[in-house]
Amino acid sequence: MIQHLLPRACDFARARTRRALRILPALVAVSALLSVPDAAAAPAFGVTSRAVPDAVTARVGPLFEGSLDDGHFCTASVVRSDYGDVIATAAHCLDDLDVMENAVFAPGYRNGVAPYGLWRLTGRYIAPEWSESADPDDDIAFATVAPLGGAEGQNVQDVVGGFRVAVARPDRPTVTVLGYPSSRETPLRCANVTTLLSGTQRRIDCPDLSGGTSGSPWLVDGALAGVLGGYEAGGTDPDVSYSAVLGEQALELYREAAVSAN
Question: Distance between CA 82 and CA 64 in Å, rounded?
Answer without folding.
Answer: 25
